[in-house]
Protein 1
Amino acid sequence: MLIPGGVLLVAIILIPLIIGIWMSLLNLSQYTIRQWLAAPFVAFQNYVVVVTQTQFFQSLGVSIGFAVVATVCSVPIGVAAAVVTHNSFRGRAVVRSIFLVPYVIPSFVVATIWRTIMQPGGVWTGMLTSFGVKSSLWLNGPNAFWTLVIVEIWASWPFIYLLTLAGMQTIEHQVFEAAAIDGVTWGRQLRSIVFPNIGGPLALACVVSVLNHINNFTLPYVLFGIPAPDNVQTLPFLTYIQSFTVFRFGLGAATAVLSLVLLAIPLIVYLRMVRLDVGKES
């Protein structure tokens, strides 16, 4: 029964991954793409070029900074939304549906809408001007990084909300009733009951959110276009430029492989922590 799933994993994940790694070892460009199997083999030269002659580390810093800031800002919003909608009240289903709207809208649509909003002289700059903040360049210059962060927070906080709410649903309602009978305040209930029980789902949400933010290509591509400001050139953006703007496909494949290795680090750390927690419980 596992054979169909295994075949799909091999066809969709393993084979493209092997092809990508092989491409990273070739001098594959617009001149050799037609006979790419016979392209010159350069071993790890592409990796050396990526590390020494491209903006790899700058893009890595942008990706990590953007992902961490967006995740840190999304967590309080998602947790607060989960706490608000955990208990039953009239219209809760409608509120929960509204909370999910930013998450279900495609990234392309989100980026297009926010690109229109943040145009010079648009809604965003007009709103800031009404509060005494004068700034018109949000899609270029130093503000571009914060534009990316703001849009990513708006689009991604419902994911934190969903996993936090799922963790809260596992808490027995009788626990809250017993705490209320004992006169425990809601703030104390959050500290002693809610937060200890949502630690696992929230940690998973943070790890997955960081990885999703780093991997997000559609949002910066549609929001800023090409050429994009250097302070929003994330790793997927750099990979795209090297592959489909400069047409150095081997270099782009090497960048993608390095990105994959770096992205695997927080995932391995999280899985290691989960294994340690399981071992302590057993």
Protein 2
Amino acid sequence: MAQAIEEYLAHRARRGSKGVRADAYAAKARIIPALGGEVAKLTVKRIRDWHESVAAAPRMVRTKRYAEKQATREFDADDAVEVRARRSTANRLLTVLKAALNHAFHEDRVGTDEPWRKVEPFREVDSAVLRYLSADECRRLVNACPADFRALVQGALATGCRYGELTHLTAADFDSEAGTVTIRRSKAGKVRHVALADEGRALFASLTARRAGRDLIFLRSDGEAWGRRINSAR
């Protein structure tokens, strides 16, 4: 099992996939200890029992990012939100497991994919819970932010864009006549256009005034670009 997961993660790393390091630690903590041994000896029952046990297990808490020693935090089995979260984690681990085993199968390391193909993930645990801020909540959020970060928050509220999308926007990406913002670096890798309401249109007009087309729209108070992540932006 350990070899199958190692080869799969190495294959992903060569292809430039994201999340390899996080999946490696998750596999080391939750998959290999429980399902270690020969892949050929895995059964449907064993994989299903493991999947259900992960959903019923306490949540692991890292003392620091990717720390090897992990504490566990008890959860309330009667809390529907927590149960849903644990099942979602179990599903993500099942996805990693199946992908690793499928890779082994396609590489002729094992003769059949039937045991894991028959194990189904928990249903309806990853659907988004929608929560919209009221106009008053938006105002309070904006007012609580430092001046430079406030513009980013206003941009997010006006467009619905992610932090990384906003921090890469240039003045040329705002079309004042059409009232749109062009997102050229999206998570999906596709260009898209966001239509702005009057308030958003006025915001971007003020932020791009007297700026050259290649200038970033959102900058820190010191005039530098924002970092790749919010927690490393300053």
Protein 3
Amino acid sequence: MTCFAVDSRSRRSGVGSTLLKAAVEFAREHGATAVEGHPVDVATPSADWVGGSAIFSGTVTMFSAAGFKEVARTYPTRPVMRLLV
């Protein structure tokens, strides 16, 4: 998963989570064995600078709720999260 485009009027209403679940299902139906994403970890101390425009890739909370697990970090606020499908 690289980007979630959600109109500002519909944010924080579950649209991103619904898109994530649909993308996982699509990948599963097309033979994927794993799905990865690079969400923003807004809970890390260094995340104070993270603005709304940086969250286009989703949040750790959203990915965790969908069953993804952190497998690495590319930056303190950027985990690599994976779901085996």
